User: Fold this.
Amino acid sequence: MRAYRLQDPTHSIAPDALARRGILSWNVPPDEAGRAALVDSVKREHGYVDEDFVELKPEMENLEAICAKFDKEHYHTEDEVRMVVDGDGIFDVRDESDEWVRIEVTKGDMIVIPARTHHRFLLTDEKHIRCMRLFANHDGWAPLYR
Ligand SMILES: [Fe+2]
Assistant:
């Protein structure tokens, strides 16, 4: 994972600075047992009760339509929780000055975009990502556009 202000890509933002704004992140252990233990502890600590997998890939006919739901600025009433199991992607998140902070995620990254935090999600040029999503409540997880 790498984070930086979109206006100043040369200066990385450390995970603990993101965490002070509620943007939590973890390095996912490469082994299955370690991965499962991390998912369990994150679910327990943050009250996530459900999970599923989502994949975006270049050969999908409706890829553009799917991406159009998330590449415009929005927020959710629940946390957006993603564990990247393959590929990579980009979260842009508004900081306290309403500037974009870009967070590049790749395989082995797990991230929480907190509820009511404005953000958008973009694919990289490879247009491929596979993620586990964790949910506290399916009903609250719909994009609310700015
Ligand atoms: Fe979102």
Summary: The first strand starts at residue 2 and ends at 5. The chain has one domain: 2-145.
